[in-house]
Amino acid sequence: MGRRGKSVDPRQPYRRHAEFGGFGWPGSRPTPDLVFLLAILFGTYALQFFEATAVVPALLRLTPAVWRLGYLWQLVTYPLVGFGSPSLWILLELLVVFWFGQDVRARLGRRRFWTLLLAATAGAAGIAALVQLVVSSGLGGSPTAFPFQLMQGQRMVLAVLIAAFATLAGDATILLFFVLPIRARWCLWLGILLAFVAYLGTKDLAGFAGICGATGITALALSRRSPQRGLRVRWLEWRGRRLGRKIDRLAKRRGLRVIRRDDDRGGPTIN
Prior knowledge:
Layout: H1 17-20, H2 32-47, H3 55-60, H4 65-68, H5 74-77, H6 89-136, H7 154-168, E1 173-176, E2 180-183, H8 187-202, H9 205-222, H10 227-254, E3 257-258, E4 269-270
Parallel strand pairs: 3-4
Antiparallel strand pairs: 1-2
Helix pairs in contact: 2-6, 6-7, 6-9, 7-9, 8-9
């Protein structure tokens, strides 16, 4: 991250929070698109408690209607629908979304931020839907009456943002519950552990699979050791070997010798 108004290379190591004003940039202006995200989450959360508007979040949340009725839009709309019972807990969850969201948004920029959020949540929805289909068929145990509850709305957004922060700023230190200092990279496993504990109480296997899927997709997309990078490295290595064999053939045909780094013998050479 960098100071407000200063561009930051996301490939650079994460710097100390003191240099940037603290975790979540306290005192700085929140980005408009992040404010929009928080407003949508809280607005859709509130709509569910009014009889006249409850149908709106019900149609947008991820449900088995994806394959039963063809409501495919739910695969991408569900992270924008706030979820939970009427309590102050929703405000705390949105506050944590803001904290992590400000840092991730600052490092990635608007386009990469929203691309990551869309790809991770849509991929997680596909994984969760497949798991629920297996469970519903009786191959994966008894299905829960309320599938996908662990990954609805701000819960999925928070899982993606925490995974992104842990990947981009793995060496940063954060205060867990404002008390326990831990390395940011540990949040990857901590998020999965918390989701597993929630699964024990809800038996929502599809929701737990969705959280794990979102965490894995986010970490792979932002990691330097992502599959795309690995494939590119192997492609360049293959091209290097191919060019080397071609040079050897040309040198042999013309009676020249290719210089190797560990070869200091005399004679006709070609570079």
